[in-house]
């Protein structure tokens, strides 16, 4: 029994120590470690909100099929090129049947990937900035700017590895991309919110 208690205490101590050492240590982009970073899919979310029937609510859905990455040089971080992909068939509303309908409305069969490729980064003060790029959705490509907060860089769990974290928002109009299906039920304006962590390879 004493050995079991000791094991539990040791495990708890390691977990607490790991949590403490996994906090971001800097929000200065110039101090983030160089390297190639890939999306940590277990710690990534993309939420979309669309007005329902003229504004009764802002209907919310989550996309689960996400991927992306970038190569980072702290001496020239403004030149970072970010690529990001979303599977439109991964929309999750909490209703499997409606998920399939949403995928159809988004044209997932004909255009199975929503992609974003950055072209410029501005800002950086207090970890806040804008990431401009091209969004390809529903077979059309348009310029889009993301408002991004750099949450910091630091070690991973138990001090292993290196990760960066970001939060952000964007606003698009479905009609700009020709995605006008179900317009009688859903508004044209789409608000996006994302929480992303990337780990260094």
From TrEMBL:
Coiled-coil ranges from the UniProt annotation: none
Keywords: Signal
Signal sequence extent: 1-22
Top-rank taxon, per record: Bacteria
InterPro entries per record: Lipid/polyisoprenoid-bd_YceI, TTHA0802/YceI-like_sf
Domain Lipid/polyisoprenoid-binding YceI-like span(s) in chain numbering: 36-199
Entry keyword annotation includes Kinase: no
Protein name: Polyisoprenoid-binding protein
């Amino acid at each position: 029994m004493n050995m079991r208690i000791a094991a539990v205490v040791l495990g708890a101590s390691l977990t607490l120590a790991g949590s403490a050492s996994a906090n971001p240590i800097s929000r200065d982009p110039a101090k983030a470690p160089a390297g190639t970073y890939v999306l940590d899919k277990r710690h990534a979310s993309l939420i979309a909100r669309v007005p329902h029937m003229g504004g009764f609510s802002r209907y919310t859905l989550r996309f689960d099929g996400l991927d992306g990455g970038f190569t980072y040089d702290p001496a020239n971080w403004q030149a970072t090129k970010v690529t990001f992909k979303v599977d439109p068939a991964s929309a999750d509303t909490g209703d499997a049947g409606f998920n399939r309908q949403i995928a159809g409305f988004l044209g997932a069969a004909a255009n199975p990937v929503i992609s974003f490729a950055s072209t410029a980064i501005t800002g950086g003060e207090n970890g806040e900035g804008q990431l401009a790029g091209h969004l390809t959705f529903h077979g059309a490509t348009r310029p889009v700017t993301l408002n991004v907060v750099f949450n910091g860089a630091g070690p991973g769990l138990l001090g292993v590895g290196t990760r960066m974290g970001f939060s952000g928002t964007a606003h698009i109009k479905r009609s700009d991309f020709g995605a006008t299906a179900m317009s009688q039920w859903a508004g044209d304006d789409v608000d996006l919110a994302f929480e992303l962590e990337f780990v260094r390879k």
